[in-house]
Amino acid sequence: MPKPSSRISRIVPSGKDGWEVHFTAMTRHQAGEDIIMLSVGDHDFDTPSETVEACVSAVRGGYHHYTQLPGIPRLREAMARVSTQCTGVATSADEVIATPGGQQALYAAAQAVLDPGDHAIVVAPYYATYPGTFRAAGASFTVVEARAEDGFQPRAEDIAAAITPQTRALLINTPNNPTGAVYSRATLDGIAEICRTHDLWLFSDEVYWTLGGGEHVSPRALPGMAERTLVINSMSKSHGMTGWRIGWLTGPRDLIALLVNLNLVTTYGLTDFVSRAAVAALENAYGVKEIAERYAARRTVFLDAICGLNNVTVRGSEGGMYVMLDISRIEPDCEKFAWALLEGEKLAVMPGSSFGEAASGHIRISLCQPEPVLTEAALRIRRFAATYR
Ligand code: PLP
């Protein structure tokens, strides 16, 4: 075949070998082995039936056609209302653009403000697609590690030290995947100060905002930030709609207007009947409270069951869908620990090293299983830790 572009060849996932634990476990699980899968980041339950019904009636009602490029008007209005709740900043429909999932919103953000040769900063531990998203825009990036001892809250001085004359953007994610850390107001104030001082765009990935436990604070609401913040939202986690591929980007209306052209040449708008179902789900908040309560209960059950375990420390783990355990006093090599846990106890978790240096020495537990399974998983970790050598 003729040579592919160098750009497409550079978009490799960031994952290190730790992902092998997950893929191996998944293959064996699918082949029928009784493995508890706590390495995945997808719900174990289906989309709320009201949303499914709204979609079915949209399909039956003839919503089969092309839609407006930035999203159908009623969808943008519904998204803007949710953005107002999420960010605390009054948002109008022309400040949001609908995308097929939060990932496309991230891609759009990077394409919208980064030129080849520009530099970005990404806070780690991070979601695995972030580096590839910057590479797809031709930008270089520096990883700034939020430290485990700070509960994975990034330090402003660490971010400031990574800034170069080419730096145009900073990417953060709160509540965080993989750590479950929810950034404090002080952390966000520090980040906002840096963005204002150095005239940076802030990409704020808030796809887990409904799963934060307490009141969500968005950096978009901080002084001088609405004009430079691009918020990534998604219905995947909040509304139980991972496979529906629906999300949106919120930002200054002039930038959003430019992004309509990106939709023109990439997605050409969203699926018609999915858009109608999304309107119903957003307007009625189908499943949002129940899903948030379910994850909060699961987090409590798991943390209670693991509480007091010798040589294991819980870090972050305040929100989102994950819990981070520092197991470095048992085994400094978290990948080795995860493999041994899979072999010895048939429990699949992600080694923290797959998400950046700061999370090495940790394992990430996904809460995407019912409470009794999480209790059983905690028991297996206890038994494993007691006998590990
Ligand atoms: N951002 C974070 C932090 C995530 O964890 C995910 C998915 O797991 C996404 C963005 C992308 O979500 P989606 O494209 O399903 O909306």
UniProtKB/TrEMBL annotation:
Would the keyword Cell membrane be found if you checked this record's keyword annotation?
A: no
Q: Where are the transmembrane segments?
A: none
What is an example of a GO molecular function annotated in this UniProt entry? pyridoxal phosphate binding
Q: Which reaction does this chain catalyze? A: L-aspartate + 2-oxoglutarate = oxaloacetate + L-glutamate
- Give the Enzyme Commission number: 2.6.1.-
Cofactor(s) required, per the database record: pyridoxal 5'-phosphate
Q: Does the keyword Cell cycle apply?
A: no
Among the GO biological process terms of this entry, one is: amino acid metabolic process
Q: Name one Pfam family in it.
A: Aminotran_1_2
User: Keyword set for this entry?
Assistant: Aminotransferase, Pyridoxal phosphate, Transferase
Q: Where is the Aminotransferase class I/classII large domain?
A: 34-378
Q: Which InterPro entries match?
A: Aminotransferase_I/II_large, AspAT/PAT-like, NHTrfase_class1_PyrdxlP-BS, PyrdxlP-dep_Trfase, PyrdxlP-dep_Trfase_major, PyrdxlP-dep_Trfase_small
Cite the record's note on assembly: Homodimer.
Tell me which family the UniProt entry assigns to this protein.
Belongs to the class-I pyridoxal-phosphate-dependent aminotransferase family.
Please report the name of this protein according to its UniProt entry: Aminotransferase
Species, as recorded = Borborobacter arsenicus
